[in-house]
Specification:
Helix content: under 10%
Order of helices and strands: HHEEEEEEEEEEEEEEEEEEEEEEEEEEEE
Shape: globular
Strand content: 25-35%
CATH architecture: 3 Solenoid
CATH topology: UDP N-Acetylglucosamine Acyltransferase, domain 1
Length: about 240
C-alpha cells in the first residue's frame, strides 16, 4: 500500500521546521500518534512558555507553548497548549488553536478557524471559518473557507481508509485527513474521517471527499438544482 505511506504525500519533510515528528514514521497516522509524546518531551516536561510573537488585544495563551519570531497573533485568538508554532505565522482574529497543534513556518490560520491536534507543514494555510482536526497538511497546502476536515465517525469506531477494495484501520477513533503537498481544497468542501488526498490535487468548492484521491488530480462537484417560479412576496 505505497499510496498510504508518508512519502507519497510529503516530499519536503526535511525542510519542515519541526521535522523530528516524522522520524521513524512509515505511515501518516504514526506521526499523529506521536504528537502528544513529542510535545511532552519538547515543551511540557521542560515547562516551556516562550512567545516571541506580536500579540493583539484580548488574546489567551495557556499551557506550554513555543511560538517563534515574526509570528503575528491577531485579536481575540485563543491558543491552548501544548503547541509549537514556527516563524512568520499569521493567526487571524477569533481563531482557536487547540492542544497538540504543530504549525510550521509561514503558515496561516484564518479568522474564526479551529486547528486541533494537527500538523501544518511550512507555508500551509487554513482560511476562515474552517475546522482542521487530527490532520496533516503538506507544504503549501491550502484549505479554503468554510471547510470541515471531519475527524470522528458517528459510531466512534476506529477510522479506516479504503484503498483498492481493502480497508485499512489507522488505529484510532480520531483521525481527519492526510493532504499532500501543494494540494488545494475549495470553499465549503468537506472530507470524511480517514480521507487521504495526494499532492498537487485540487478539490473544487463544495465537494465531499472520502477514501483515497491520487496525486495530481482535479475533483469536480456533480451538483444539480431546479428552478421554479416564485410568487412576489413583500418581506417584513
Amino acid at each position: 500500500m505505497e499510496e498510504l505511506k508518508l512519502n507519497y504525500y510529503f516530499k519536503e519533510m526535511d525542510n519542515f521546521t519541526f521535522k523530528e515528528i516524522f522520524e521513524g514514521c512509515t505511515y501518516p497516522w504514526e506521526a499523529l500518534a506521536k504528537i502528544n509524546e513529542f510535545l511532552k518531551e519538547k515543551i511540557v516536561d521542560k515547562d516551556v512558555k516562550i512567545n516571541k510573537a506580536e500579540v493583539g488585544e484580548f488574546v489567551s495563551i495557556t499551557g506550554n507553548y513555543f511560538i517563534d519570531e515574526g509570528t503575528k497573533i491577531h485579536a481575540n485568538v485563543v491558543i491552548q497548549g501544548p503547541v509549537m508554532i514556527g516563524k512568520n505565522v499569521e493567526i487571524q482574529s477569533g481563531a482557536l488553536v487547540r492542544p497538540g497543534s504543530i504549525i510550521g513556518d509561514n503558515c496561516v490560520v484564518g479568522h474564526a478557524s479551529e486547528v486541533k491536534h494537527s500538523i501544518m507543514q511550512n507555508k500551509s494555510k487554513v482560511a476562515s471559518l474552517a475546522f482542521c482536526g487530527d490532520t496533516i497538511l503538506g507544504k503549501s497546502t491550502r484549505i479554503g473557507s468554510g471547510i470541515i476536515l471531519a475527524n470522528r465517525r458517528f459510531d466512534q469506531k476506529n477510522i479506516t481508509v479504503k484503498l483498492n477494495g481493502e480497508k485499512y484501520d489507522v488505529g484510532t477513533d480520531f483521525f481527519g485527513a492526510v493532504i499532500g503537498d501543494s494540494t488545494r481544497l475549495g470553499a465549503n468542501s468537506t472530507t470524511v474521517p480517514g480521507t487521504f488526498i495526494g499532492p498537487y490535487t485540487w478539490i473544487l468548492p463544495t465537494v465531499q471527499v472520502r477514501g483515497f484521491v491520487p496525486a495530481e488530480r482535479r475533483v469536480f462537484p456533480l451538483a444539480e438544482y431546479k428552478i421554479t417560479d416564485n410568487p412576489k412576496v413583500e418581506l417584513k
